[in-house]
Amino acid sequence: MADAPVVAVRGEAYREVAPELARFTVTASARDRDRESTLSRLAERAAAVRVLLDAAEPAVERRETGQLRVWPETKRSGERVVAYHGSVGTTVTVSDFTALGELMLRLADQDQVEVAGPWWSLRPDSPAYREARHAAIADALARAREYAEALGARVTALLELADSGLTAAPPMMARAAFAKGGGGGAAPEMELDPQPQPVQAAVEARFSISEPVLG
Fold first, then answer.
1. Is the pTM of this model over 0.90?
2. Domain map of the chain by residue range?
């Protein structure tokens, strides 16, 4: 077997699959000349965001509070504080896309709240990754058989298989930024089209083959 002819090939697979998750950010802000008033308004607006997210369960799979910022605004000519600013962001993960557009618009309809996103992605354990790896192995075997047949030989054994890497695109965003613009009434409806997620797998393989028939 060690002296048998060897063919080395690269197997590849590329798929575009439907996303499984969508993430977006919600940022509540406040500004006032008084620091305590700024903090109070910021807390109220953050609480209003939480109420809407609570009402959206179970569509909301996960939410994480990000950066909380409170900072003074000073005059250019000195350190005298003229106002205080505050903001707090939340990253929301949604798996039910039918409720995504409505939820984002309802959040954006809140006073001094900005919504940005969504970012589409797959779950880390998505079956799409496994399917791509299997397809890459099948491609490597098919290529090896093609080369062997061209030589009048056949594949006899697998000698080595190496994973060249599984590549998934970083979360892709169809940007839709919303900010409260005044006015009343119910928030308008919006449909969002999920972006297909590319998944690519590759393997390096070495196969032994029977003696070629040359000439």
1. no
2. 1-18+124-169+197-215, 21-121
